[in-house]
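user: Kindly work through both lines:
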Amino acid sequence: MSESAVQVIARGDRAPAEAAAAAIDANPLLENATYSILEEDEDKEIWRIDAFPTTDEEAEGIAEILRATPGLEVVVEKLADADWLAMSLSGLPPVEAGRFFVYGAHDQGKVPEGRVTLKIDAGAAFGTGHHGTTVGCLEAFDNLLKTESFEKVLDVGCGTGVLAIAAARTGSPIAVGTDIDEPSARIANENAQINDAKCEFYFADGLSDARIAQHAPYDLVFANILAAPLVFLAPEIGAALKSGGVAILSGLLRTQEERILEAYLPLGFVVEQTIHHDAWSALQLRKK
């Protein structure tokens, strides 16, 4: 862990921002790096990358890539010794994605009637609903629910568990999730209880874990992770799905779509829908 927490910020045009993000993804030493990329100022066409390294080596690696990308202005800021993640997310507005309304405790009085409400507070796990990847997954799921129902749903890399909880709250009798981060699995189970959702989340590495495999094949698999693990897990995700099942994949940039499709199309998947939010993509694929 870094002795003093820092945030690495880069601003510039879209092309260099996306190129830098792709370079971070391609660096094996930064495989677990946490960052976001979004359009900060639509009128001026300014894009922004925010990275939150957890070690000094990671901070140096990210800063080096960003500074080596022409067209980006890079600054490294020291973070105060506080729960900055919870503090920053606590002021975010609720998220609406189709029938779904994702909110935190600070929005308790803003919950509308007639919506599927998901209470997800800021914490140590990814997936409050504000990120473009999570919104894209919920929007794709909402569209699917207009014509289909899903008996068995798997959430790979569950984070807060918001996607599996959304499935349970809309009628899926079996909704399970897995994460390689033990605190995330614990937080997801806590969120399931808060939302009165019948879900189970497990700390596990891969989909061969007996608690996950016992419910296969699944009707729907969510995988909102990163491009590299999406590619690596393609055979396992394909094997976990029934024929005609759906995979909603995200955590990837628009520039990484081709890389993901090269891994999934040969396995018998076809593209049904692509949803974009800022630089992020959500792919809805169906197994033939």
Q: What stands out?
A: The chain has two domains: 6-79, 131-287. The radius of gyration is 19 Å.
